[in-house]
Amino acid sequence: MYNVTRVVFTADDTESDGWADAMNTIAAAAESSGAVRHLVTATLPGVINGGDLIVHLQFEDEAAWQASRGAVDAGLHHAAVGQVHGAEYTSGTAGRSRATGPNGVYRALLIRVAPDTPEDTIERFESDLLKMPGHISSIAAWRLSRVSAATDECHASDEAPWTHVWEQEFTDLASLQTQYLDHPIHWGVVDRWFDPECTEVIVRDRVCHTFGKLGDEVLPSGG
User: Which residues in 98-117 are b (16+ Cβ under 10 Å) and which e?
Assistant: First the structure.
């Protein structure tokens, strides 16, 4: 599966009617894109560099996305839209342990690993991330993918703005904000890769931590 995630920011001084029209336009573009699955959801309070709207599309392959991207990009090119950043990626390691339920939340973490990081170190980092669902019961589904194409109008570097997308479906928002972020597997194992005071840090740039309400499940067990 080929995936496209876009994080959309409202333009400065946009009025509520203008933003509502933008969301409707973007949702219509996603609906008609031919994606196998799609999600368009407003972000919830607490995101970090997470924008105001998440657009997530899944296509059978990259060719299907390329055939549709013009119409999707046109939907995103709205006067009420300020910045857009995101990533494109083939589905990586994924799993599902349970149904998400009616209060489900989709979360995506866009990460940039330092470009000089050895491959074996990256693999250890990825392995640590993938340990999390085994310890955190509120993660109903997950997927970790390496980015093949990325965009970020906020990023000053010429390097690829994102290298990984770490996605989850949570049973509810409170679990994301408490059980996940406060869990020992998070601060005791995973945080060392992000903490500038740790010698193992490899994520030196800002991250995009974004999440919104989930309707239908979007992360299949096999990616």
Answer: eebeeebbbbbbbbbbeeee
Three-state secondary structure call for residue 93: strand
User: Is 218 part of a structural domain of the chain?
Assistant: no
Query: What is the distance between the alpha carbons of residues 59 and 68, in angstroms, rounded to a whole number?
Result: 10
Q: What are phi and psi for residue 79, nearest 5 degrees?
A: -60, -25
pTM of the predicted structure, to 2 decimals:
0.94
In 78-146, which ranges are continuous DSSP H helix? 119-131
φ/ψ of residue 147, rounded to 5: -80, 135
Which pair of structure tokens corresponds to residue 165?
């997308």
Q: Say which amino acid occupies 162.
A: W
3 state DSSP class of 192: helix
| Mean pLDDT value of segment 100-124 | 96
Domain count, the chain: 1
185 within domain boundaries: yes
Domain-embedded: residue 14 = yes
Residues of the domain holding 184 = 2-213
Residue 223 lies in a domain: no
pLDDT digits (tens, 9 = 90+) for 2-25: 999 999 999 998 898 999 999 999
Q: What CATH code is carried by the domain that includes residue 175?
A: 3.30.70.100
55-93 pLDDT, tens per residue? 999 999 999 999 999 999 999 999 999 999 999 999 999
- Residue 137 corresponds to which tokens in the numbers above? 């019961």
What burial class does residue 23 get, using C-beta atoms within 10 Å of its C-beta: 0-12 exposed, 13-18 middle, 19+ buried? buried
